[in-house]
């Protein structure tokens, strides 16, 4: 039977650390070269766990779950050559009650893992369904093991992708 679950980051988010007010919890990574590799930049600045990532031509916006996580990212300086990492000037909206509940109760994250994928399901079928729900940072399909892992740029997209996949292949 197909199983879906979210992969939690190793540094778990505690209830106490979640942002509930209007603060700046978004980091701006600018002065990136045209055609930059999003995955390399995210790895270099240690941008996990993050609520969402907005990709632009010459910069990234990374929204963290609280202000401290964002400040730690800026303080670490990252390992991106020539990039400027700073707090974004705009205030970030608070996490909604639904987001907090999904994080705490359901372990929601930007990663979605699937195991026991039926043999009749092909790689292109999985990718087609997953890509309908938002931009993917990366994804891996392991045909012999019948598993797949998708990493979205936004945790809401990962959460929304679960239902259509279940409906299409289980019913």
TrEMBL record:
This is Uncharacterized protein. InterPro entries: RBD_domain_sf (IPR035979). One of its GO terms (molecular function) is nucleic acid binding. It comes from the Eukaryota.
């Amino acid at each position: 039977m197909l199983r879906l679950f979210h992969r939690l980051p190793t540094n778990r988010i505690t209830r106490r650390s979640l942002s509930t007010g209007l603060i700046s919890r978004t980091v701006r990574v600018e002065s990136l070269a045209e055609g930059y590799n999003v995955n390399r930049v995210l790895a270099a600045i240690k941008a996990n766990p993050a609520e969402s990532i907005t990709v632009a031509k010459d910069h990234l916006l990374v929204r963290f779950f609280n202000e401290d996580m964002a400040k730690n990212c800026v303080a670490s300086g990252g390992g991106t050559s020539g990039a400027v990492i700073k707090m974004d000037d705009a205030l970030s909206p608070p996490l909604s009650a639904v987001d907090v509940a999904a994080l705490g109760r359901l372990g929601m994250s930007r990663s979605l893992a699937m195991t026991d994928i039926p043999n009749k399901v092909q790689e292109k079928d999985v990718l087609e369904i997953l890509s309908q729900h938002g931009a993917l940072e990366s994804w891996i399909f392991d045909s012999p093991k019948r598993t797949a892992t998708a990493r979205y740029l936004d945790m809401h997209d990962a959460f929304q992708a679960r239902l259509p996949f279940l409906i299409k292949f289980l019913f």
